[in-house]
Amino acid sequence: MRKYIVAGNWKMNKSLPEGIQLAKEVNAAVETAGALKCDVIIAPSFLHLTEVSKVVGKKVSVSAQNCAAEASGAFTGEVSAAMLQSAGIPYTIIGHSERRSYYGDTDAILAKKTGQALANGLKVIFCIGEELSQRDSGKHFDVVKGQLENGLFQLSVNELKNIVIAYEPVWAIGTGRTASSGQAQEVHAFIRKTLADKYGQAAADDVTILYGGSCNENNATELFSQPDIDGGLIGGASLVADKFIKIVTAF
Ligand code: 13P
Hints:
Elements: E1 4-9, H1 16-32, E2 38-43, H2 49-55, E3 60-64, H3 81-86, E4 91-94, H4 97-102, H5 107-119, E5 123-128, H6 132-136, H7 140-151, E6 163-167, H8 181-199, H9 201-205, E7 209-212, H10 220-224, E8 231-234, H11 241-248
Parallel strand pairs: 1-2, 1-8, 2-3, 3-4, 4-5, 5-6, 6-7, 7-8
């Protein structure tokens, strides 16, 4: 059975002391919340990863926000999957729309990054989602399908076990304009069907599919009640421990 997950993507926010403080607050809130229905992940910047790892317990996992497409060598400014693995980081996000649109991360690059991450024992939170113009012209299903086919479908069914998918419609990210639970569920069901067509229903049923895009403490319960929405990838609301813990406990 697939896991529920709530993951906080801190993006390029928080100084190192602020990040350590936030991680401590999230950890304390998770500890006092008792039994949770979901796994909890926080994704601070590369700089924070090892320090944040030291202040969280077993109930909070730490994720990178990106990793290099190459294994090692002359790639100034990059951080390899092997480096993350050596620092004890279990997850990395790959393919966030901000990476795709601002840093030129194409499907082909993302497929290489995913390969690096999996080869180094990391689990991947793989992000997909359409832009507003693509939704307005009714192309969102084709866009999402293409991102899956070109970014992930090189993987074996066994490798798919280490993939979490995050559906993040670009028009909902940081805009306060969340997808309705119906809109999100429709695409999540389509993603699962696309996975089932390629890998079989049993494998597709085991994949955790997160929703991201203006998910917050007020709309999380409604979104998470949908049958194919298995949690959230949270941006802005993950930067405040009180808000984030309300989302973690929204199932
Ligand atoms: P917001 O929750 O700030 O809309 O960001 C979503 C996101 O991009 C998470 O990766």
